[in-house]
């Protein structure tokens, strides 16, 4: 069923998107302000269930790309993703009937909403990452045969770039990242144009709704003095993200972070409150690997989320800092994201990690 | 008058293009092989005098961009610039009636000939640099109001990129250089699409013919045991490049060269045969400045050409090395390239040099 997204949803949505961002995906706070402004100017947004998209409808996903460390400082006006979509439409000689997230974490849950509000386009409740990932080829769309090309990039000065690498989505990422770096580290894009039938076949469904559920559950637990982690675990049980596991509780003891080659890369450490155990986190924009006392507890593509220990407020990699009291949770990804072809594209080996993938529900 | 370019012209053309490349522009030897192959497969090429191009004809210039140090090692197949032209045509929804060089030095005298032969398109005898320059905004086309955008880039794996920065040609260069670096340091492009009327108004005319004249003059002087420099000086007197001055004769004593940010940058020194005088050359792909004993003798946009001292064979910056016996000449550029707006775009200050432009014929 389609539903209408209003300003009242945004706080919960942003919080949920930050959880699904697994530390990355860009700051949803900035995205939330952009959506709020767009809704105030253009009215609320129609969210389409993927089952409602016509098989022959043309869906053009929109997103932001760049290092979260840069996004944090270089705010978009909201016009850039519209420019990207319009540029791609012009290149294709076709008009979009809807837009969609390519990524359901962080700011990229929000960017398609900005586009939807500004252009009066519905937004499909689905995405291609089922979380946040750092690179453009890391999409269920591509895993199941939809090419990212042609893609369009819109810059803040009205510059446009259209890249076409055929079926090679990795090459598309490589060139688009080069342009993004030249644009100052952040850009807005339209890519993975597909039919409604392809949305149904390749997208992770209902992840905007999922983000809203996650954000709302945390808020309501707080309001009712309940344990937000327990509430979240309960709420997820009915979704495609069935399993939540607490990986660690403790205090951040070290963060090493650098912006290089267009990404925020680094590692973080935390020590348990009793001082007995140590957590190590590795990230490239998003958290990739959680080790406790040297043993793997959760690894990509399963979600590794760092939350503030009392409020369960998500903490992104670019705001992680010494002394924060945190609870680190692992959440299982949908089966669609754990097939051999999916793991080849965004599993541990795609990030150069030498660990084979094991589901978090088996590890913890 | 239009004329037909055949395989027999290529050796002279390549030599002349290397002289006009002023040390850069990419190795014309590689370009010569590509044109020879294209002529053998597709027949000779029609060269149009700019006066013969219809005012409403669509001219789409083609070129290679990249660091000459890379071009030297990473040979194109010849399909890449055709891909760039076809991509731009598709983007514009129009077909080119001719192609043209954007640069008359080095490999870029050759690339449009490859395109012309392969596609059966005439090539206009004109260009936008009147020599070689390292950056895409350094064009008389842009100086006199023709935008470089939209531009298309073709890669060796069939990747295409279309960049549109409106009237900001410097921004276009910045983004295109980013893509070129990601393509491995060399790319092929189509840009500065213009009408025949714009060719007549903004291009430096008859520079393919000029390259041929320069190359032929040097060869014939050698064959007749005449001084090639004197012969060249004589031949240029009747062209827009009226003045030739000998700046220095001596032996290369030092070369410092690095490939950075997509360019070959560096400096070279030479010592006169009597050991009394010292030449210093500064280059960014092309030679920019010649100092003799610390005094300016020639500076960009005037041509600074390093030739082998006996044969007058041109030496490009990437093949310059210790011990070479050289004669360094300066050649005056056409008036079109010395206006205040032209000097603002490719004069000394555009390269961060603190010297004001003085014509070589006044300096020596």
UniProtKB/TrEMBL annotation, chains A, B:
A Pfam family it matches:
S-Me-THD_N
State the name under which the record lists this protein: Hydantoinase
InterPro entries, A to Z: S-Me-THD-like_C (IPR048350), S-Me-THD_C_sf (IPR024071), S-Me-THD_N (IPR010318), S-Me-THD_N_sf (IPR027479)
Q: Which domain of life is it from?
A: Bacteria
Please state every residue range assigned to the domain named S-Me-THD N-terminal.
9-164
Task: Describe the location of the S-Me-THD-like C-terminal domain by residue ranges.
Answer: 168-360
């Amino acid at each position: 069923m389609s539903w209408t997204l209003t300003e009242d949803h945004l706080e919960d949505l942003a919080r949920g998107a930050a959880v699904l961002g697994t530390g990355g995906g860009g700051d949803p706070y900035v995205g939330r302000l952009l959506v709020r402004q767009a809704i105030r100017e253009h009215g609320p947004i129609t969210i389409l269930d993927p089952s409602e998209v016509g098989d022959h409808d043309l869906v053009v996903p929109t997103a932001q790309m760049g290092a979260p460390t840069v996004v944090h400082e270089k705010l978009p006006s909201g016009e850039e993703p519209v420019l990207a979509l319009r540029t791609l439409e012009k290149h294709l000689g076709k008009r979009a009937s809807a837009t969609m997230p390519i990524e359901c974490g962080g700011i990229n849950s929000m960017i398609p909403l900005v586009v939807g509000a500004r252009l009066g386009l519905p937004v499909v409740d689905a995405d291609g990452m089922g979380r946040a990932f750092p690179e453009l080829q890391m999409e269920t769309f591509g895993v199941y045969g939809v090419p990212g090309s042609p893609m369009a990039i819109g810059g803040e000065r009205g510059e446009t770039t259209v890249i076409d690498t055929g079926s090679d989505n990795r090459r598309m990422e490589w060139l688009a990242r080069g342009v993004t770096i030249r644009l100052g580290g952040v850009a807005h894009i339209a890519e993975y144009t597909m039919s409604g039938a392809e949305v149904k076949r390749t997208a992770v469904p209902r992840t905007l709704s999922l983000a809203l559920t996650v954000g709302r559950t945390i808020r309501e637990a707080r309001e009712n003095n309940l344990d937000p982690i327990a509430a979240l675990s309960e709420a997820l049980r009915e979704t495609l993200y069935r399993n939540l596991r607490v990986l660690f509780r403790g205090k951040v003891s070290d963060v090493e972070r650098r912006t290089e080659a267009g990404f925020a890369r680094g590692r973080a450490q935390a020590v348990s409150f009793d001082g007995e155990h140590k957590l190590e986190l590795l990230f490239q924009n998003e958290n990739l690997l959680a080790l406790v006392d040297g043993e793997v507890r959760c690894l990509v593509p399963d979600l590794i989320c760092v939350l503030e220990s009392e409020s369960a407020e998500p903490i992104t990699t670019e705001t992680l800092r010494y002394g924060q009291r945190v609870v680190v949770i692992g959440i299982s990804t949908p089966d669609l994201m754990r097939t051999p072809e999916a793991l080849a594209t965004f599993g541990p080996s795609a990030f150069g990690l030498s660990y084979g993938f094991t589901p978090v529900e088996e590890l913890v």
